[in-house]
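Complex record, two chains
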Amino acid sequence: MAKPNLDHPTLALVKARFPKAKLFATEFRGDTTLVVEKQNLHEIMSYLRQDYETNYDFLSHVTGVDYMGYPKSEGNAPEGRFAVVYILVSTKTNTNLIVKVMLDPSLPTDGIEEDPALHVDTVTDIWPGAEWMEREVFDMYGIRFDGHPDLRRILLWEDYPAHPLRKDYPVEGRGERENFRVIGREDA
Amino acid sequence: MPYELKPFDTDCETTPYLNDKASEQGDRWLLNFGPQHPATHTTLRIVLELDGERIVRAIPHIGYLHSGFEKLGEKLDYNQYVTVVSRMEYISPIAEDIAWHTAAEKLFGIDLTPRCKVIRTIMAEIGRIQVHLLSLAAAALDLGAFTGFIYCFNVREHINDLVDYISGQRFHCDWTRVGGLSQDLPDEKMFKKLVKKFIDEQLPPAIDDIERLLNNNKIFRDRTVGVGKISHDEAIAWSLTGPMARASGVKRDVRKDNPYLCYKDNWDGQGSSAVDFKIPVASTCDCIARYLIRLEEVKQSVHIIKQLIDDIPGGSVNVDDDGKMTIPDKSSVYGSIEGLIQHFELVMTNRKWEAPIAETYCATETADGETGFYIVSDGGPSAWRAATRPPCFVNYSVFSKITEGHMIADIPAILGSINIIAGQLDR
């Protein structure tokens, strides 16, 4: 594969501003991705939003990825089981940047118990629009966002026994549909 | 087995909010709006905390239509998933087909043929008209103007006929493929005739009718002016796109900011300039502004189609006919060994495409805003992760904010102006 082109203007600014943070950047077809560590995520995001040079005022999307069994990349790209991906746009300069944070679980991932390692700071205080997007990532991957105002499941119901977009959850489900509680006319 | 199915003893529909707030505050009461309500269009549930008729808080509960589309996207290959994607946007499936394959082609690095770009652009704009006609119709219907609904719906029928003509399927046409289309136009002259008839004869009277019916209608204006306001800065902070953002003065349109297809300069490789159109922007930030923006966007779409329809370039619709990206047409599959091999290579489950191991985000402007796909590829024939950025989901998240302080009767006006498509909302 071609060598990534890393002259995105924001990368140098972030590097200069956070000399101690461990950063990794890559590029593919014009999309520059910046991988940060989760303890630095919130301050880097605030910087990206508030600094007049970067000014990423529009959060396009927040999504999750599960990398269980994903082919190993060449080079020293940071690896982890889960990723939370933030797609940022600056409406002033019309530049895009993808920020990614990698997370590794400390517990088995086939249930819904809270995993202390799968916590990351919320960005709802920076972009209020992240509220539902973070709720969806929590719903689908079980990644909890610290400081989120209303972290409930959004698409599935509260008792759903899995986080279904994890790779260890089968596409055909685990029989939830077959064992659905049926409310008859007499107990309604 | 580490996991056991929990019996569903607890009532899944209970939220803590419902239990504690209602009894504490005697003068406020809770009202369940939906999930089945004529004014919600689809299965949406809103729990309203009311003070008299005034809304103190509105809490949307979504997910009634959730069917795990994104999980299926990890199983189905880049061509098969288009059938699922088109069910997300069930108002204009063709626009969503184009959005998905624009993203897939960015991953593969395919540059489409000029003919394919022009046909896709025309159909993307027709898809935009299709959505806007529905949302104009629904905005009128929810506020009592049943006639307006009929005016718009009548014209949508012609769009279905046109889609039927080009793809053989009236509605969920699943018409795009990686690197091209499922089929070339059956007859170019006939296609031109149908499109021209639509934009010159069938659409304008309907638009005139609805403008005369609603634009200065006292009832319509009373119920939409100043309702559901969201300011310019808030619209950006809440990630709004499409008519919702433009009605608040945010001049953003992916077709201009990050152009693709014929919205890009030099799209045919011979120096053609991008199609000309304007982005309508309003400053009043309310429901009527969103209605007027949609109306203007229909006219801009017609303007775009008029620039393209007379000069559809010749040549193939599929990229790289002798390459390995597109499924060959049936005559070549049955008539030549190369065609047969190529078909076999792309259809057998253990072969298909070799995608680059990479991640890419590609957004397109559909009628409701920025529809993006974040594709993670592991090099196999299907995406490792095909995350959707659904404009309706993001636009709807602002609903509880913009309804606060309004009356119950304003809810249909606001819902109609957001234009929620539950397929995208819940996926």
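Note: Chain A touches chain B through 54 residues (CB under 8 Å).
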